[in-house]
Amino acid sequence: MEPDMHDVPELLIGLSSERLAGKVAVITGGARGIGAATVKAFAQNGAHVLIADVLDDLGATLANSIGGHYIHCDVSKESDVESAIEHAVTWKGQLDIMFNNAGVAGPGGSITRINMDDVKHLLSVNVLGVLHGIKYAAKAMIKGGIKGSIICTSSSAAIMGGLGSHAYSLSKEAINGLVRTAACELGVHGIRVNSLSPHGVPSEMLVNAYREYLGKEDVRPEEVSRYVGENGSLLRGRGGTAEDVAEAAVFLASDRQSGFLTAHNLVLDGGFTSAISSMGFIYR
């Protein structure tokens, strides 16, 4: 399908490398943070983007700015996700990319005091929401004969203990397992399924966690990024950004760049979960 350049602002076309030219993408949780950065990156690379979120004002404004569409979607509700996929197919005739990005932080604190109702809500969004997305994206891709790309947002908390709450870590590790099993089935249809695991990206979720940890209301994203760069990255002074994750999502969505990559968890952590920098003195 040839891209309709009237759907993308002139400025974005000028910046585009067209890695996703003409592709149709649905991004859940696309109204802000990592999702919003990915919406912009996909549009800059020629994709038609449908934002699915519960933040209606933010989502609709962003969709209008990139010539995309917005739909209200609570991913914990299977019918909402089904409707979002149907909307994308009705809009452009196909679905090429599904980015299951929506998620919540959920309850923190000791496992001995954890509120199970809060856990069930978190799992309904972080795990069932991803399952809904994979299910209906796969159905649309198979029906349309599309060898598409399904991407799911996991976390470094699924790799290393102590980086997230118990419930959040549980949900993100579950996503990685689901990605592997879905890749096994859907690979027969040429559909790739991969996950992204960001670390220390100063999203609203992480900034709020730092505010609670420090007991300060005036913590700014730059402070969180600086802290991660100094303490949570082998690339000293370099923390992760939403744009880093967005570019990784473009890579996973691109047939030209990652056409032989599936069942993979792409970790964006500055090497933090693979090595310990505090022992670096032994090499000097």
From TrEMBL:
Taxonomic superkingdom: Eukaryota
Residue stretches spanning the membrane: none
One Pfam family from the record: adh_short_C2
A GO MF label: oxidoreductase activity
InterPro entries (UniProt xref): NAD(P)-bd_dom_sf, SDR_fam
Keywords in alphabetical order: Oxidoreductase
Family classification: Belongs to the short-chain dehydrogenases/reductases (SDR) family.
Protein name: Uncharacterized protein
Organism: Rhamnella rubrinervis
